[in-house]
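Homework-ish question, so no full write-ups if that breaks the rules, but can someone show me the predicted structure for this set?
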Amino acid sequence: MNDDDRLERLLHATLRGLPARPAPHDLESRVHAELARRAAQTWPRRSFRHWPMSARAGFVATCGILAAVALLSGSWMEVSIRTLIESDVLANFWVRHLTQLGAAAGDLAVSLANALPAAWLDTLLAVAASLYVCLFGLGAAAYRFLYLRPVNDRLTITSGDQ
Amino acid sequence: MQTTSTGSDQSAEFTEFMRAHQDMVFSTAARLTGSDAQAQDIAQEVFIKAYGIFPQLRLQPSAPGWLKTVATNLALNHLSRYRKRWRLFSEMRADDAGESGPEPDVPVPDTLLENLGSEQRRAVVDAALQRLPEHQRVPLVLYHFEDLSYQEISERLHVTLAKVKIDIRRARLALLPMLQSAGMVP
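A: Not a homework solution, just the prediction itself:
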């Protein structure tokens, strides 16, 4: 038998022979308190599984009605907005100007993209990606040094106290 | 909690049930998580789940096994959530699977010294387990305490079989000098 096998057998026998760790004295009271707290909750605050059957059925029916209304109103709103835009009702309204501004900005972006050499665009994208990675790295470093390290220090101090 | 006579009977019975098994449930969670506070939260959740099905559970001879399984699953879920949340920033290091690792520095004895009582041994071993890194402690506990095979541990932890074997071996090698310094190893 080699050292690894002997170590495995030794530790297995040692660990299996250990008594259980005593649970904290307040575990029992904590469980009872939590059970009492949950029992005292009114049904809307409990999980859906514990709702009365009528409330569950009502909730499902309401959700179904709302979903149907959302679907119908979506198509109705689309038609209404299109009709409004195409009509003269909004002729002098800001929505018309906003739409024209958006279209002009889109045209400008397309023109610029066509005018610029492909290499420039690639470089621009690479710079943007690098900046994003740098920002992510800075965030990670700040998180480690400003937040994680103090937490670890607290844990070390706590375990050192025990 | 119910306040009828049947309800208070059940509550008293549940209290007895909890007293009978709380050490086992707490131990399971504490050895896996390496944290008493987290283990207490997990043990509380286990007994709240048990209370929900207590009318069926109290008649089952497999109730302790059910409690242990739920405690193990909750502890592993907890560790998994915690690991996903923190790994990105706190464990940015290469996976060390694939190496066989160092040989034992301490000669491996056939038996441990009997100079400590069982409670002292438990305290020493539990303290040593808490000092192991999570990726070594969890597979070691699953293997030695929960009787899972290497393959089952690999599947539960979603790591390779080779990594499980290496981590468990390293955990044993790390435990040995800790037990020696506590006077349990000759």
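Now go work out the reasoning yourself. Hint: The longest helix of chain A spans residues 118-161.
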